[in-house]
């Protein structure tokens, strides 16, 4: 049964509550969903065919950011993530599937994909304890929230 959409800007806690995820099993399921979205993010981030016309003219470095990608390419990837869902995550994508006019949508896949981009693009994760050193992230790396590490850009 589809659930009402959750705004992309909502927190992890709000998403987990909406999907009924809690405890260790809920965290594991959240990680699986995030992992599937991370693979979608990587597919979008390294193919120049996904860039907007303006972004193509600017020749941005990979990995590409959310705002540099065509909306139709992001939408196609959202549907691809949901359609290729594993046996454990499929039910959660079904909760986010709905039809608007003639278009299929999936707010669960969209939320996870957007959060993968958000944390990689906008969150350097260079935070340190108060007064501690702040480490700079090399431009050739990006934060991967699925694995909690910096990854080298391809």
How would you describe this structure to a colleague?
The protein is mostly helical and 154 residues long. The protein has one domain (12-124, 135-152). The protein is 47% helix and 10% strand. It is built from 6 helices and 4 strands. The chain has helices at residues 12-19, 23-45, 53-58, 71-83, 90-95, 107-122, and strands at 97-100, 103-106, 141-144, 149-152. Strands 1-2 form a two-stranded antiparallel sheet. The chain has a two-stranded antiparallel sheet with strand order 3-4. β1 and β2 (103-106) form a beta hairpin. α2 packs across α4 (71-83) and α4 packs across α6 (107-122). The protein is globular, with a radius of gyration of 16 Å. The model is unreliable at 123-138 (pLDDT under 50).
List keywords for this structure.
4 strands; 154 residues; two-stranded antiparallel ribbon; mainly alpha
**Main β-sheet, in a few words?**
2 strands, antiparallel
Please give the alpha-carbon distance between the first and last residues. Answer: 39 Å
Beta-strand proportion = 5-15%
> What does the overall shape look like?
globular
Order of helices and strands: HHHHHEEHEE
Spans where pLDDT lies below 50 across 5 or more residues: 123-138
- Calculate the mean pLDDT score and round it: 86
The tally of domains stands at 1
Topology:
Elements: H1 12-19, H2 23-45, H3 53-58, H4 71-83, H5 90-95, E1 97-100, E2 103-106, H6 107-122, E3 141-144, E4 149-152
Antiparallel strand pairs: 1-2, 3-4
Helix pairs in contact: 2-4, 2-6, 4-6
């Amino acid at each position: 049964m589809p659930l009402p959409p959750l705004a992309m800007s909502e927190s992890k806690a709000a998403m987990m509550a909406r999907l009924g995820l809690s405890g260790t099993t809920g965290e594991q399921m959240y990680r699986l969903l995030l992992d599937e979205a991370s693979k979608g993010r990587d597919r979008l981030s390294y193919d120049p065919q996904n860039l907007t016309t303006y972004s193509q003219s600017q020749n941005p470095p990979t990995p590409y950011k959310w705002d540099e990608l065509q909306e139709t390419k992001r939408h196609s990837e959202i549907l691809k993530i949901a359609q290729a869902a594993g046996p454990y995550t499929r039910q959660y994508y079904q909760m986010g599937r709905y039809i608007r006019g003639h278009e299929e949508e999936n707010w669960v896949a969209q939320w996870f994909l957007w959060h993968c981009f958000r944390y990689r693009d906008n969150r350097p994760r260079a935070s340190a304890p108060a007064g501690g050193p702040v480490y700079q992230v090399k431009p050739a790396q990006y934060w991967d929230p699925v694995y909690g590490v910096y990854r080298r850009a391809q």
